[in-house]
Design goal:
The chain is of the alpha+beta class and about 260 residues long. The protein has helices at about 105-125, 130-145, 150-165, 210-215, 225-240, 245-255; strands at about 25-40, 45-50, 55-60, 80-85, 90-100, 185-190, 195, 205-210. The protein has a five-stranded mixed beta barrel. Strands 7-6-8 form a three-stranded antiparallel beta sheet. Strand 4 (about 80-85) and strand 5 form a beta hairpin. Helix 1 (about 105-125) runs antiparallel to helix 2 and helix 2 (about 130-145) packs antiparallel against helix 3 (about 150-165). The longest helix is centred in the C-terminal third of the chain and has 18 residues, at about 225-240. It starts with about 25 loop residues before the first strand and ends with a helix.
Length: about 260
Amino acid sequence: MLTAPPVQPPQPARKRSAPRTVGTRVTAQPAFVLHSYPYKETSLIVELLTRDFGRVALIAKGAKRPHSQLRGVLQTFQPLSAGWAGKNELRTLTDADWVGGLLPLEKTALLCGFYLNELLVKLLARDDAHPKLFDHYVATLNQLAHNEPPPIVLRKFETALLKETGVAADLARCADTRAKVKAGIAYVVDPERGPRPARDDDTAPRVAGKTLLDMEREDYSDPATQAQSKQLMRFLLAWHLNGAPLNTRQILIDLMQL
């Protein structure tokens, strides 16, 4: 059985302003477990992705006890209804109920799910709401569970993640001129600004304009688009992660060259 690789998330360097939820009592919030780790003798610290409050860190008191109701509920990739309270950044989970509605992930799809979770833990600032990204995450889990091609599913999610967190530009427009990208021209993508025509001295991955236009349309039917988008997303994610390794990605590369 596949298990989640360890995650040691750095604090993201970029954070958009968002209403703080510290001190707010929250109930019946749609959520997914991204990651959890032991806290003291009987408890866990659980990182949740929530629809209206973004990524939150909560203490699940007593969750490690054999007869704790939380023990069987706090599972990854299962829709939850969660509540919490507290005045500190690390708040207390008050309730969590399994909602259901998604097929379980198995085999390669399961590892892809862990990859999504690692991306979210490492790239999302806490208490920064991204409801569209939450919905995209649910759709992505559903696509993986129904055996849609993992490379295409992951490229779509990676692009949505960078766009939703405000660190990816419009791939269909040149950064300097705002002119529309042309399919027959080679480009490089500046991680901070967006596409520009490639130069001879560029070390960043060169991608065809058609690839960038395809990515904006979420059209990955062209094998060249699949190959170039994979290299581009590796480059952009490495930049925004400040070089922090992605444990699950290396496993996926070894297994399937995703």
